[in-house]
Amino acid sequence: MKKLLLGLSITLALIGCDALTGEEIGRISFKQTSDVEQIIRETTLDLKKGEKISFWTEIDIEYENELALIYTVELLIDSKEQGGFKMNALETNPTMMEIKKSLGNKTTWRYTGKMNHWTIKEDGNYTFKAVLHSSENHTLKINKAELVLKK
Hints:
Blueprint: H1 2-21, E1 24-30, E2 41-47, E3 52-64, E4 69-77, E5 80-88, E6 95-103, E7 106-119, E8 124-134, E9 141-150
């Protein structure tokens, strides 16, 4: 009986998390930044007018001193360029499951956080081409850096 209740509790917690943060509809993963070589990752989604989407990040990094970490995203709708935008991966609201440890000038930081949100203005095939940039920091180690789209 205890196992059944535990299983039910875990299931409800996971369902509740989706209700709070939204359903994942796309994910773009990075293992390194585009400071030397341009590394472009993309995802394409069929979106409808009025849908609300949000941009989240899942980060697990290690670095020394100061760091800036920015997603640069180019948007295409039905293969036509629409422009682009930038999002700071280190400034999220809300931030969830955060673990940040600093010792001296070395930091390890892991979290999930929301960076931005939109309401879709027209039906179409939306392509998000993303690049991850950082400030010059040769100590940066990316264990995980993912741009996650949810609705």
